[in-house]
Protein 1
Amino acid sequence: MPTPVRVLEWNGASIWVFADAPSACCAAADRIVQVIQSGVNNRGKAVLGLATGATPIPIYERLVAQHRAGELSFADVTTYNLDEYYPISPADPRSYHAYMHRQLFGHVDIAPNRAHVFDSTVPEAFAAEHVAQYDRWIAADGGLDLQVLGIGRNGHIGFNEPEELPVEEALRLPSRLVDLHPVTRADASRDFGAEPQVIPRALTLGVAPILSACSILVLAFGTQKAEIVARSVRGPMTALVPASLLQSVPRRVTWMVDEAAAQALGTGRG
Ligand code: GLP
């Protein structure tokens, strides 16, 4: 496993700083493999929460390469993706269904009925029941062994967007249908061609089910993430920076960042 150039501690969470994003992605992939292997050895299965976006693509490439080399099987792995635009067809290349198929599911031996992504074809009247059922499926699977997260420039995790809400309420947010924040829509325009074409709503795993994972791995790379990484890990904890809510479960959280994303972090504490 590549070793971090330094490890910081802020508010109880570990921040592993790597020389560059590829090294961080190697370490993240190795961590995922460890979780898969120990889950399969100890309880016959591993349950992963997975993220999309540009950040985790090299991780999926590494997992696929290990599978192709005969070193890694997904036969006993169950996955739950964090989010999906709403509404969108799974066949739409901009959907996270299609992304996951391109990056991972289409190249490994995961059982299709264990690779869960929100169904964004459900009529709106059934969306609340669908996402509640998704939370119940995760609980029935014994919870997430590991949740992998990226972070939006506005601090979103999944599509839990910044909002004015008391922290206690934000920590209890369940999976739900949400409106995307303007910064999220601007960033998503790279996938949709232009901002007006971005689907403005999404289904997202809630803050509460994310925080229930046994361990949480957060990835952030590049200078454009430096400020929000610092606000998330140094605090204060606020629903206006959803990733700061991870401070409520600090011992379960590891950040893996590159030097660029760590540049506003200082030397850390502890
Ligand atoms: C996307 C996803 C998030 C992701 C984030 C960062 O919109 N909904 O789950 O973590 O934004 O994306 P990127 O990795 O491309 O910077």
Protein 2
Amino acid sequence: MSNSCKKAYITTPIYYVNDIAHIGHAYTTIIADTIARYSRMSGLDTFFLTGTDEHGQKIEESAKIRGKSAQEYADEISATFKDLWDDFGISYDKFIRTTDAEHIIGVQKAFDVMYDNGDIYKDVYKGHYCISCETFFPVSQLVDDEFCPECGKSTTIVEEESYFFRLSAYEDKLLAWYNENPNCILPKNKRNEVIRFVEGGLEDLSITRTSFDWGVKLPENLGDPKHVMYVWLDALMNYVTALGYGTDEANMDFWPARVHLIGKDILRFHAIYWPAFLMSLDLPMPKHIAAHGWWTRDGEKMSKSKGNVVNPREVADAYGLDNFRYFMLREVPFGGDGDFSQKALIDRINSDLGNDLGNLLNRLIGMSGKYFEGKVDSSNAAKYYQAELDEVQASLDKLEPLLFDMQIHKYLEELWRPLTVANKAIDKYQPWTLMKEGKEEEAMALNGLIAAILAKVSVMLYPVMPEICTKISEALAFTIDNASWNSLIKEKKLLDTFTIEKIPPLFPRIEEPLLEQAEPEDTNLSTGSVKSDKDTKATVAEPAKSKEEGIALIGIDQFFQTSLKVGTVIKAEEVPKSKKLLLLQVDIGEAQPRQIVAGIKEWYSANEMLGTQVCVVANLKPAKLMGLTSEGMLLAAKDENGLCMIRPEKPKTAGTPIS
Ligand code: MSP
């Protein structure tokens, strides 16, 4: 993908509102944010879209289970996505919801256009439908003639009147598009998969349903009010309705998208259905559809029941948002699957970030302070260190194409070469020796070289680590923007003379995991974390399940293995930098109070907790959270209205057992 057009429209998938955001969602969004930030910095007129996908049977059912209207439920979960992206500083230009009035009008308009040009007809659909995946499957694709090939859940046989989209008519046109645009689907091997699938033949697509209500109605002029649109037709259209398609058309000049960022599981919808819909609407094709791989946790598929879903907010709170962003983008080749482990994350922070980047800045601050009272002057850098500057520039020149080809891990790998050049230059030329030998000009030039390298690297790293790179640029007395990108990267200039600002180390060394204890989501009150302890799990026998609720049954002796005690909170304070955690000292009748780190700050202030009684799980293995040891867990109950502590009804002596 070349940076030659003036506009850049970048999208994420719109997220289903039947679940809260996890690392997979964060990954897609952070990649898109990185591309959007780079696009803006390099002077492209950029529009970055994200949002939520709110219609369909799955959402309708999830809402019903919780006793809510679908709209109420969608409002609630959509807000949690928006809040997370806002807290993460995601630089989106629009957050679309498929329940937005403009979106609904746009989808209906598109339906009309496709109907008028003969691509939609009415018939009867009989087939197997997976509610969980919101997809019809031919029997040939089912497992044991019944189960969904994607998620393994039982499918439902649906026989109903339906409108169909003539997908089969687009087979040749789609194949021509793939063939004429070798980079339309990234990574390239995914394009081959799609081609093989389309060559196998396409059936027409059922695009309306009559068995539920929660969806976009057909245009009124069709006079068929019992039909609602297929969620994927509704959802895919968001990419153009967000720009005003069918309403004010205000931003339609951003179309076609430069890149639709998606996960590999939704490639078929984006690489087959979406281009076919666009062809039918006579709209241009997106430039790229880029499909990333799947994240697992410590080698296992993440699932709520295993309690091993990685919560991005908690990882970012514990390890730093920029560090988390760097890790996800550096650790996994785009398109490949990735595994989240705290060890891998800590290694990246200590090694790449701490040793290579942070340490270089410290060395520069040290040298400038010791020899030149903080002054840095690059004017003689080229005179003494042209070879190093050439090597650095050769790496920088390779970067932009790597980013726009979605080879972000290689982009970061290449971006680290200048840091190696800089660190090696200090070791080789030894400023302390130069100063001893009276070669002050050379030593200052070396200082200037290092500062220039750090400045260039921080500009190009900014889209991945905006907060950290802003701090580096402030220390180096410049601002990261289109002007500095032009000057330092495109025009290959060095920094003007400046006085360096001493700043605290950017990447303090991390010695041990900061998120530890295993608790299934929603009961993780002592830790605020969501990981599972593999060792503990391995030793526990598979428990029996109660029929109605799928809850594991245990014997009374197993229950009594848990020591529960009444405790009195004798000290309560906030954990610095944490949005969730309070640090409590709880008297449970022992010689010393227990220190408990509790994820309850969203619902209780430190003051409200002070002096109150709580129920404590007293025999949990200690865990560390944000570097603080937690020696127990508090009992609480949480539902959609929030969380409340479980407390004794009347005051009880601290340490009283609960049984
Ligand atoms: N609503 C549809 C998308 C419609 S776009 C017009 C949808 N939503 S989703 O919430 O289920 O998934 C959104 C994105 O999250 C997808 O790109 C999916 O690949 C990604 N991920 C969900 N779980 C994931 C992992 N465990 N790992 C990586 N990404 C994963 O699909």
Protein 3
Amino acid sequence: MRTPMIAGNWKMNTTIPEAIALVKGMKDGLERVDKVEKVICPPFVSLSAVKQLVQGTSIKVGAQNMHFEIKGAFTGEVSPLMLAGVCDYVILGHSERRQYFGESDDIVNSKMKAAMGAGLIPIMCVGERLEENEAGKTVEVVTRQVKGGLADIDSPQGIVIAYEPVWAIGTGKAATSEEASATIGIIREVVAEIYDASAADGMRILYGGSMNAANVAELVQKPEIDGGLIGGASLKAAEFVSMVQQTAAVQK
Ligand code: PGA
């Protein structure tokens, strides 16, 4: 049995006081749910304040990105070692990083290795763009991204994958549970091909893209979908708590 995960990706939103207020608004509600792993991923500057607030609770903290070098002359970058003291998780290869910051599968792969080397658990994002979807290339694209991101990683233990079709992110148009589940099933087959059936069986694969309190239950009740990576809806405390509660209530 895979423990479901609901992770909030706050993206470039919230000042430090806003981040603190948001955590305070959701902390008690999240703490009352224990069947779901709850992760919040605020901006870098708020990580340590957020970490202090959730210290001693079951709420985990993640970063949204990092550099693949441990230290050095990389002005403005944040290293895995810096995050290791504050975070459990790190989101890597988000489509916004791929699209706006030129992150290739090779870069994502370097980051994956660096994160794991520092003891961080990666949440690796994959997903096709609209034109790729319309051209029937979804399987080809996600297969390439999964194989590229996991290249030369001997043990995938702990790694989380988030399938986030780019056309669904921030658009209000989520994939249907059938579409999401079918593609996640394919991703699981790719993981089985790279490693073995037990690695694929144990790996949590989330859906992301316009997931909210109104569609979460329908999505996570699919056996293949192990939870969600939530953008916009994770910035509303009550809605995020509701998504975690609804995920806990689903019987698979
Ligand atoms: P969204 O973003 O929920 O706002 O669509 C999801 C994501 O980008 O992780």
Protein 4
Amino acid sequence: MMGRLPFIAGNWKMNKTVGEALDLVRQLKASISKVEGVEVAVAPPFTALYAVQKELEGTTIKLAAQNLFYEEKGAYTGEISPMMLKEIGCHYVIIGHSERRQFFGETDETVNRRIEAALGQGLKVIFCIGETLKEREEGRTFAVVERQVERGLRKFREMEVKGIVIAYEPVWAIGTGKTATPEQAEEVHRFIRGRLEKLYSREIAEGIRIQYGGSVTPENIKGLMSLENIDGALVGGASLKAETFSKIVRFKEM
Ligand code: PEP
């Protein structure tokens, strides 16, 4: 794995009140705060970020937000700026999740602007890409992923790209219980790393972590993590319970 530290992140999506979020994070602290050799982050909804950050102080579990807007401030009702996230202790921000692309009109161009704004504030980015079922069935997986990588990372230099983690999430596998087989995932991860090498350099491509996302569970994590180009997971449904998320984080012990 060329020394890439495995990275498991939980995307809670639009789940958990503040009270529920604190319950979950307290359980996670008890079960995974001593796990070594893996980086862990949780992405609660905006309303719970501040409280969760307070609870995470002194632990190695990092805080992530699920989105941001690219402007610094102003008349953008309902939006959250990079600085607001940085101020409350967010380390990561998820950008370009397929649900944002599908339901909220996010495009490769707005994803690119969001990444730029996040990096400008010193936030690290989990940049999501992935093909729909239709695109896969039409044999366009590689073309779609290539376009998303090239446009999403447009204008960024090597220094900036170092602050990015890519999450390959085939849309047909998100929340459906259908995981890509380890071979299907590895094939796309290898392709993405190859594109990064062409766009930047071998050194950069080898250093960037590529997570897999899409119905990751305690049952399938080990197989996925055994592959050369899979460096972690972005976990939705299974991150909502301490028991399942902890098992995923502890994949090395299985
Ligand atoms: C996700 O939302 O990033 C995700 C992968 O969800 P799930 O694990 O529920 O498929």
